[in-house]
Specification:
Elements lengths: L3 H11 L8 E4 L4 E5 L4 E5 L10 H16 L4 H5 L12 H9 L33 H13 L7 E9 L4 H19 L3 H13 L20 E2 L3 E9 L17 H9 L5 E4 L12 H12 L5 E2 L13 H5 L4 E2 L21 E2 L4 E2 L3 E2 L4 E2 H7 L4 H18 L2 E5 L15 H16 L3
Helix pairs in contact: 1-4, 4-5, 6-7, 12-13
Length: 435
């Protein structure tokens, strides 16, 4: 049953509206009436627990989808699309709720080997809408036509998961010797010398530790006048799985130096270990270790391997005052999960309340391009640029995830991620000139 509390949640925590002066009525003739003081908004009531899309809803979504597709190459039209959408008969609350609380997922969910929900779970007649940030467009349309507010400035989040901070400890002695042996066989003299000194000194000197680098970040406050920049490093401080986690030592001097040199430039967040979703009580130990390493309590999180079931796996974070999570993503496809780029909160049906952790949808993860989709550099660059472009022209934010180890180019064959991220940084300058 739809309640006033549900409406307040959608207005405040999804549409981002200040609800202090708003009054809400659910009428006997099955209408939602929201009085904003200077205008009244109405839409039909809907099933909050299990909303479904009606023919008229598909017609509205198809109209927006068609306008985007028709003008996909026209940056000026895309960035102003929200101004030109007719608000007639759009059920803003229902549509936003349907997507951000993922009622487009079939039951049971289809999952991958890590038990993460994948895009094949999405209803076939709905999945095309996740090609674009449809919810962002709906929210901006509501704010523009009803509240007379222009679209807000966006933010690009350069984030990195520090799965391990010492390459040689991660590889172990046998893999390290085999790596050095291959350098000798293939006459890679310069790399052999650099890695040999790194092997000897990576626990003592920051410049010899290839994993503690800043290549994945951008050290400036803004690009142009409207695009804000934020850097976040997520630290894996706990080992819960023999294969997928690694036991890091954050007491080494290079990490302390890295922490000190990045004060006021990089924020640090918790990277809950692989099995945290099954053993949430380990978060207490992880937070304690994080505090010892970083000297502050974690405010952000991203689950290792994005191994998180939304929204209920966020409840243990909420209990421990972690306010923001960056794990929301389909690992198998570059879709807009939730059809949204801006932060929002989900509703927990098991707890029958809002989960007070802001979700920041992830836009692109490096290994999705190179390993999951097996793209070569040129295809990866074209695809990534288009995702960034759509995120910032139609949505608000863009969250990039580049792992720290991927920034060391000699580590893997055909490792293009450092080069790719540099190209995306340059593209952001170009894109900002048309935003």
């Amino acid at each position: 049953m739809l309640t006033k509390g549900h409406i307040l949640y959608l207005l405040g925590d999804v549409l981002g509206i200040d609800c202090n002066t708003v009054s809400i009525e659910i009428t006997e003739d099955e209408k939602i009436i929201v009085d904003f003081g200077n205008f009244i908004y109405q839409e039909p009531i809907f099933d909050f627990e299990s909303p479904t899309l009606l023919d008229e809803d598909f017609e509205i979504l198809d109209t927006i989808f068609f306008e985007i597709t028709k003008n996909k190459k026209n940056d000026s039209i895309l960035k102003n699309l929200y101004k030109n959408i007719s608000t007639t008969n759009i059920p803003f609350l229902k549509l936003c709720h349907y997507f951000v609380n993922e009622h487009y997922l079939g039951k049971p969910n289809k999952i991958d080997e890590h038990k993460r929900v994948i895009s094949e779970s999405v209803y076939r007649d709905v999945i095309k809408y996740l090609s674009y940030p449809m919810v962002d467009i709906l929210i901006d349309t509501f704010h523009y036509h009803y509240l007379h507010e222009e679209k807000q400035n966006g933010t690009v989040y350069f984030t990195s998961d520090f799965d391990y901070i010492n390459l040689w400890k991660y590889l172990g002695i046998f893999k390290t010797l085999w790596r050095f042996f291959k350098h000798i066989i293939f006459y890679r003299r310069q790399i052999l010398i650099e890695e040999f000194w790194s092997y000897l000194l990576s626990k003592k000197y920051l410049r010899r530790n290839f994993m503690l680098n800043n290549a994945m970040f951008l050290f400036q406050d803004k690009i142009g006048e409207t695009l804000h920049i934020k850097n976040i490093a997520f630290l894996l401080v706990h080992k819960s799985h023999k294969k997928f986690d690694f036991e890091n030592d954050f007491s080494i001097l290079p990490f302390k130096e890295y922490l000190f040199t990045n004060i006021n430039q990089v924020s640090f967040g918790l990277h809950p270990s692989y099995n945290t979703r099954y053993n949430p009580e380990t978060l207490n130990e992880q937070i304690e270790t994080f505090e010892q390493a970083v000297m502050e309590r974690p405010r952000f999180s991203r689950f290792h391997y994005l191994n998180c079931s939304f929204p209920d796996d966020l409840l243990p974070l909420e209990e421990r005052r972690i306010k923001q999570d960056f794990s929301f993503y389909f690992c198998d496809k570059l879709l807009f999960r939730g059809a949204i780029t801006r932060p929002f909160k989900q509703w927990s049906y098991s707890a029958n309340r809002i989960v007070n952790v802001e979700i920041f949808p992830l836009s692109i993860m490096d290994v999705t391009l190179s390993k999951t989709l097996e793209m070569k550099y040129d295809e990866a660059l074209t695809t990534a640029k288009e995702k960034v472009r759509l995120s910032l022209l139609l949505g608000r934010n863009c969250v990039l995830l580049w792992h720290n180890n991927e920034m060391y180019e000699p580590l893997y064959k055909k490792n293009y991620h450092r080069k790719l991220l540099t190209a995306l940084r340059n593209y952001l300058d170009e894109l900002e000139s048309i935003r």
